[in-house]
Amino acid sequence: MIQAYKGLLTKDIKVMKNYYFLGMGLILLAVVGGGLLTKYFKEPNIMAAVMLMVLFAHIMYIPLFILASLNIEAKTQTWLHNPNSAALLLLSKLGSALVAYLFSICFTLLLAAAVYFLYPSAEFYTLIQGSLLTNTLYMSIAITFVTIYFAVWILFYWSFFHSLKNVSVAGALRWPILILFWIIQTIAGNYITSSKWFEKIISIGVIEADAKWLSIDLEVNQSSASIGMNPTVEISLVHGLIYTLLVIFLFYLSAWLIEKKVEV
Q1: Are strands 223-227 and 216-220 parallel, antiparallel or unpaired?
Q2: Residues 6 or more apart from 110 whose CB is under 8 A from it?
Q3: For the chain, how many structural domains are there in total?
Q4: Looking at the whole model, is its pTM more than 0.70?
């Protein structure tokens, strides 16, 4: 199984190598654009803000990478003739996307460090409370969890969409069905998360953590304001467990949908 996964992972990395370079190219393009704007307006804060936006843009990195990889599989149809399980195939997609993501975000952090040393006088850095290095690491970890969570939802919706192709009645109405399902899922999710019983459940196993890294102090015309959260934030271990179980459930449900499509 391990050897099969290594083979699939290597194959996905090779197939998606152009997307690696595309991502790096877009980052460099943003940096060059930010540098030109910084030079033109003589405002170092522009470059610092550009790097922060590039960092947060990584929230959509793995979902978009996964979507591109799945669409390539749908066009080539090579997964139809693969003897491995759908779960292993999807895990390979996630693995290759995670490898690309780690290279990309590390590349971004290196560029951000270079920008910091090139423009140390930028006032933008002083707006963020606490240690800049610690805050950047916290943000990177949070972005990583969020992008993986979104990626698993992409896996599910892609699998659900393609599985409808084999349903005679629903085949021609896949997009309306998908949109309707998303609306129902969103409403149901909002209802559950806002319910009192859910709030009681997630109140179990709560720990407090420093949240200064989520705060930014602004000062305009001698008036100050703070954007962000309280100095401490409550993190529910049960809440995290629920999301972890949801990710696992969606992953295996996606694999089941793909295997059902292959069998039909």
Answers
A1: antiparallel
A2: none
A3: 1
A4: yes
Q: Helix/strand/coil (H, E, C) string of the chain?
A: CHHHHHHHHHHHHHHCHHHHHHHHHHHHHHHHHHHHHHHHHCCHHHHHHHHHHHHHHHHHHHHHHHHHHHHHHHHHCHHHHCCCCHHHHHHHHHHHHHHHHHHHHHHHHHHHHHHHHHCCCCCHHHHECCCHHHHHHHHHHHHHHHHHHHHHHHHHHHHHHHHHHHCCCCHHHHHHHHHHHHHHHHHHHHHHHCCHHHHHHHCCCEEEEECHHHCEEEEECCEEEEECCCCEEEEEHHHHHHHHHHHHHHHHHHHHHHHHHHHC
Domain residues for the domain of 128 are 2-263
> Which segments of the chain have a pLDDT < 70?
78-81, 125-130, 170-171, 208-234, 261-264
